[in-house]
Design a protein that fits this description.
Layout lengths: L1 E5 L3 E2 L6 E8 L6 E5 L5 E7 L2 E5 L2 E5 L3 E5 L5 E5 L4 E8 L10 E2 L4 H15 L4 H18 L14 H13 L6 H8 L3 H12 L3 H19 L4 H7 L5 H12 L3 H30 L1
Antiparallel strand pairs: 1-3, 2-3, 3-10, 4-9, 5-8, 5-10, 6-7, 6-9, 8-11
Helix pairs in contact: 1-2, 3-6, 6-8, 6-9, 7-8
Length: 285
């Protein structure tokens, strides 16, 4: 069975890779040769089974929980055995030379993420595509953490345009900011800007803008007694009807519920600290 799981760009946070598509192949019923083009950057991951990678007249064995980069300037053929299952991640990344390495999936979370993806594909419970996307994000972040992101896809240094957009949002998040305004500011098209910003910060500029507002609202809820309506206006929302859904989307609770929970937690912490202090005074007295 061959299946396309996602068809839209997926940001992988600090993994610094943007995934355009996730494709699943398997379980394959017979020997199969899969050809990967020289100009189609991606990552091939063997979930189950084994095979051989052929590139420039050289072959290399690839087994379960191993992966390698393709589309980095030379054609690649993967010959796999029956029963093999694999994922192919089509990525949007700067390609810097040919990467001949066959990498092994890091232990722990990365392997668990791949196992979870395989279960989701097999069960196909409603919403499994979205769940697979989240697990791929975790997988790529784990590669970054262990230094096992394919070297050919390691990004160039963050460019000045993306950094300027971030700084501009931080300075003007209380104002209405449109994506078209940011595009004009940096001279990039919509897709180019979203990809570059997403690779650097793990989200699009507009997502960053909304989260920046919510984080400021969160701080005001913690540090002041201002009414929610006043906080909403302070950070640029027209009213509670706009602020409350945005806050709940990112924080998982309403502003009032968050303030109450924060203060209850703070009170419990202070009570415990006082108890420990009294106990210490008693023992040393």
């Amino acid at each position: 069975m061959d299946e396309m799981i996602i068809r839209e760009p997926l940001c992988a946070g600090q993994a610094a890779i943007v995934v355009d598509k996730i494709s699943y192949h398997g379980p394959l019923k017979k020997d199969r040769a899969i050809l990967y083009a020289a100009d189609g950057p991606g990552i091939v991951i063997l979930l189950i089974g084994q095979g051989k990678r052929y590139r420039d007249g050289r072959s290399q064995s690839v087994g379960k929980n191993q992966y390698f980069a393709v589309g980095t300037g030379t054609e690649t053929t993967l010959l796999v055995q029956p029963g093999t299952e694999l994922l192919f991640l089509t990525v949007a990344a700067h390609v810097s030379g040919i990467d001949e390495t066959v990498y092994t999936v890091p232990p722990g979370t990365a392997k668990q993420a791949l196992s979870a993806i395989r279960r989701e594909i097999q069960k196909k419970v409603q919403g499994y595509e979205m769940v697979c996307q989240k697990y791929i994000q975790i997988f790529l972040m784990e590669l970054s953490r262990y230094g096992r992101t394919p070297a050919c896809f390691c990004p160039e240094k963050q460019n000045d345009a993306v950094r300027d957009i971030r700084d501009y949002i931080n300075a003007h998040f209380r104002e209405k900011i449109l994506l078209t305004e940011l595009m004009e500011r940096c001279g990039l098209e919509r897709e180019e800007l979203n990809r570059a910003f997403c690779a650097a910060y793990g989200m699009t500029p507009i997502e960053y803008y909304h989260q920046r507002r919510v984080q400021e609202g969160k701080a005001l809820l913690e540090q002041t007694d201002l009414p929610v309506q006043e906080i909403a206006e302070n950070i640029g929302f027209y009213s509670n009807s706009h602020f409350v859904p945005a806050f709940k989307k990112y924080m998982g609770t309403t502003p009032l519920q968050y303030r109450r929970q924060y203060r209850e937690k703070k009170a419990r912490k202070m009570k415990e600290e006082n108890r420990q202090m009294e106990l210490s005074d008693y023992l040393t007295g």
